Structures are given as C-alpha cells and as structure tokens.
Amino acid sequence: MNNYWLALLGMTCITFTCRYLFFAKKLPFTLGVKTKRALAYTAPSVLTAMWVPIVFLSYQHIEKSFLDSPFLIAGLITIALSLKLKSTLLVVIISIAVFVALQLIYY
After folding, report:
1. Nearest Cα residue to 91 out of 103, 78, 104
2. Domain assignments of the chain as residue spans, ordered by start
3. Which site from 55, 67, 80, 87 is most exposed, i.e. has the minimal number of CB atoms within 10 Å?
4. For residue 98, what pLDDT is reported?
C-alpha cells in the first residue's frame, strides 16, 4: 500500500471518529456552551476557504479579466439571491443555472 492510500485511510479513520463522538447517542459526550458557540463559526469558515480560491483565482486560466469571470458573476448573483430569497434550494438551483449559462457563453 503506497502513501496515498495510507493517508486516505488515516484521514477516514480520524473523520469517522470525530463524527461518531458527536452523533453517537450511547456515549456520554456533550459539548459546553462556549464550545458550541465557537463551532458555530466553522461552517462559514470552511465554506469561505473553499470559495475564495475558486472565485478569485479562476480567472487566471482564461483570457478574460477578473471582472468577466463567470465564477465572480455567478458568486455575486448567488449573494444577491441569498439575501432576497429564503429558500436555500432555490438559491442553489438558480445559481447553478446561472453559472452553467455563463460558462456556455464564455467558453
């Protein structure tokens, strides 16, 4: 087994163990109020770490400028939709459709 599969197996075990501790009802494990409040920021932090490189670095492989990037335009439209609409599923569907349409236009 090479290092790739060994690392993948290790990360799988670590992820499963962390998830199991939080979701298993048989274990007497509870989080404190401060810990729960601190963990409330993890989802926005992780999502930001994922979308920032995509939006701000995606234009480098195309000939157009940053302001013409389909990633930026679709991202801005997604922000506007999420502020206006309260249905997350609807925002995701419309945003993906806008992004696909922009990709077809630009490429």
Report:
1. 78
2. 1-30, 32-106
3. 67
4. 94
In whole angstroms, give the CA distance from residue 11 to residue 77. Answer: 35
Q: What angle do CA 16, 20, 23 make, to 5 degrees?
A: 135
pLDDT, tens digit, for every residue of 75-94?
899 989 999 998 989 999 99
| Residue 76 identity | L
Which pair of structure tokens corresponds to residue 74?
Answer: 């679709």
What is the pTM for the complete model shown?
0.56
**Could you give the CA distance from residue 59 to residue 82 in angstroms, rounded to a whole number?**
24
Amino acid (one-letter) located at 102: L
Measured CA to CA, the distance from residue 44 to residue 88 in angstroms comes to: 15
**What are the backbone dihedrals phi and psi of residue 32, each rounded to the nearest 5 degrees, phi first?**
-75, 170
